[in-house]
Amino acid sequence: MTVRDLARRSQAAAGAKDRETWLGLFAADAVVEDPVGPSPLDPAGKGHRGADAIAAFYDAVIGRVDRLRFEIERSYLCGEEIADVGAIHMDLPGGAAAVVRGVFTYRGDGSGKLVALRAYWDFDAVEFA
Protein backbone atom coordinates (compact mmCIF):
# COMPACT_ATOMS: atom_id res chain seq x y z
CA MET A 1 0.00 0.00 0.00
CA THR A 2 1.36 3.39 -0.98
CA VAL A 3 0.87 6.62 0.88
CA ARG A 4 -1.45 7.60 -2.00
CA ASP A 5 -3.66 4.67 -1.00
CA LEU A 6 -3.59 5.89 2.61
CA ALA A 7 -4.48 9.43 1.52
CA ARG A 8 -7.43 8.18 -0.54
CA ARG A 9 -8.61 6.01 2.36
CA SER A 10 -8.36 9.01 4.68
CA GLN A 11 -10.37 11.16 2.28
CA ALA A 12 -12.98 8.43 1.74
CA ALA A 13 -13.37 7.78 5.47
CA ALA A 14 -13.72 11.49 6.23
CA GLY A 15 -16.28 11.83 3.43
CA ALA A 16 -18.22 8.82 4.71
CA LYS A 17 -18.09 10.18 8.27
CA ASP A 18 -16.42 6.89 9.26
CA ARG A 19 -14.64 8.05 12.41
CA GLU A 20 -13.14 4.69 13.43
CA THR A 21 -11.71 3.94 9.99
CA TRP A 22 -10.27 7.45 9.71
CA LEU A 23 -8.66 7.31 13.15
CA GLY A 24 -7.34 3.81 12.45
CA LEU A 25 -5.23 5.09 9.57
CA PHE A 26 -2.91 7.03 11.91
CA ALA A 27 0.16 5.80 13.79
CA ALA A 28 0.03 6.28 17.57
CA ASP A 29 2.33 9.33 17.49
CA ALA A 30 0.97 10.90 14.28
CA VAL A 31 0.19 14.59 13.88
CA VAL A 32 -2.64 16.37 12.08
CA GLU A 33 -2.05 20.02 11.18
CA ASP A 34 -5.19 21.31 9.48
CA PRO A 35 -4.42 24.05 8.66
CA VAL A 36 -0.68 24.33 9.25
CA GLY A 37 0.10 27.09 11.72
CA PRO A 38 -2.10 29.05 14.11
CA SER A 39 -5.80 29.23 13.31
CA PRO A 40 -9.13 29.16 15.13
CA LEU A 41 -8.92 25.34 14.83
CA ASP A 42 -5.48 25.27 16.50
CA PRO A 43 -4.63 28.61 18.19
CA ALA A 44 -1.13 27.46 19.20
CA GLY A 45 -0.40 26.22 15.67
CA LYS A 46 1.34 23.06 16.89
CA GLY A 47 -1.07 20.54 15.38
CA HIS A 48 -2.96 17.68 16.98
CA ARG A 49 -0.47 14.97 18.03
CA GLY A 50 -1.33 11.46 19.15
CA ALA A 51 -4.50 9.38 19.06
CA ASP A 52 -6.48 11.37 21.64
CA ALA A 53 -5.72 14.74 20.07
CA ILE A 54 -6.48 13.48 16.56
CA ALA A 55 -9.78 12.01 17.78
CA ALA A 56 -10.64 15.35 19.39
CA PHE A 57 -9.84 17.11 16.09
CA TYR A 58 -12.13 14.71 14.24
CA ASP A 59 -14.97 15.34 16.69
CA ALA A 60 -14.53 19.12 16.62
CA VAL A 61 -14.09 19.54 12.86
CA ILE A 62 -14.94 16.58 10.61
CA GLY A 63 -17.64 15.29 12.92
CA ARG A 64 -19.50 18.60 12.80
CA VAL A 65 -19.69 18.80 9.01
CA ASP A 66 -22.84 17.37 7.42
CA ARG A 67 -21.10 16.29 4.22
CA LEU A 68 -17.51 16.45 3.01
CA ARG A 69 -16.10 15.75 -0.47
CA PHE A 70 -12.53 15.98 -1.78
CA GLU A 71 -11.79 17.24 -5.28
CA ILE A 72 -8.14 16.47 -6.08
CA GLU A 73 -6.86 18.34 -9.13
CA ARG A 74 -3.22 17.19 -9.01
CA SER A 75 -1.29 14.75 -6.90
CA TYR A 76 2.46 14.36 -6.41
CA LEU A 77 3.77 11.11 -4.90
CA CYS A 78 7.37 11.24 -3.62
CA GLY A 79 8.54 8.25 -1.58
CA GLU A 80 6.44 8.01 1.58
CA GLU A 81 4.82 11.41 1.05
CA ILE A 82 2.12 12.76 -1.20
CA ALA A 83 0.91 16.29 -1.89
CA ASP A 84 -2.64 16.64 -3.18
CA VAL A 85 -3.71 19.95 -4.70
CA GLY A 86 -7.41 20.61 -4.76
CA ALA A 87 -10.45 21.51 -2.73
CA ILE A 88 -12.57 20.20 0.09
CA HIS A 89 -16.29 20.85 -0.38
CA MET A 90 -18.33 20.89 2.83
CA ASP A 91 -22.02 21.06 3.58
CA LEU A 92 -22.33 22.73 6.97
CA PRO A 93 -25.10 22.55 9.55
CA GLY A 94 -27.94 24.94 8.78
CA GLY A 95 -27.63 24.61 5.01
CA ALA A 96 -24.46 26.64 4.44
CA ALA A 97 -21.64 25.33 2.26
CA ALA A 98 -17.92 26.01 2.20
CA VAL A 99 -14.99 25.27 -0.08
CA VAL A 100 -11.42 25.04 1.20
CA ARG A 101 -8.76 25.19 -1.54
CA GLY A 102 -5.24 24.13 -0.71
CA VAL A 103 -2.47 21.59 -0.66
CA PHE A 104 -3.01 18.53 1.50
CA THR A 105 0.03 16.41 2.36
CA TYR A 106 0.23 12.96 3.86
CA ARG A 107 3.31 11.11 5.13
CA GLY A 108 3.30 7.38 5.68
CA ASP A 109 5.53 5.27 7.90
CA GLY A 110 6.14 2.57 5.28
CA SER A 111 4.05 0.01 7.15
CA GLY A 112 0.54 1.19 6.31
CA LYS A 113 0.00 4.03 8.79
CA LEU A 114 -0.05 7.80 8.41
CA VAL A 115 2.39 9.72 10.57
CA ALA A 116 1.40 13.17 9.33
CA LEU A 117 -1.49 14.91 7.63
CA ARG A 118 -0.75 18.57 6.94
CA ALA A 119 -3.17 20.89 5.19
CA TYR A 120 -1.99 24.18 3.70
CA TRP A 121 -4.91 26.54 3.30
CA ASP A 122 -5.81 30.09 4.24
CA PHE A 123 -8.54 30.25 6.90
CA ASP A 124 -9.58 33.72 5.68
CA ALA A 125 -9.92 32.51 2.07
CA VAL A 126 -12.57 29.85 2.73
CA GLU A 127 -15.39 30.30 0.23
CA PHE A 128 -18.86 30.26 1.80
CA ALA A 129 -22.12 29.84 -0.10
| Secondary-structure content class | alpha+beta
Q: What sort of overall outline do the alpha carbons produce when their principal axes are compared?
A: globular
Tally of helical runs? 3
Q: Assign the CATH class.
A: Alpha Beta
Question: Can you walk me through this structure?
Answer:
This protein is an alpha+beta fold and about 130 residues long. About 20% of the residues lie in helices and about 40% in strands. It has three helices and seven strands, in the order H-H-E-E-H-E-E-E-E-E. The chain has helices at about 5-15, 20-25, 50-60, and strands spanning about 25-35, 50, 65-80, 80-90, 95-110, 115-120, 125-129. Strands 1, 2, 3, 4, 5, 6 and 7 form a seven-stranded mixed sheet that branches. The longest helix has 13 residues, at about 5-15. About 25% of the residues are buried.
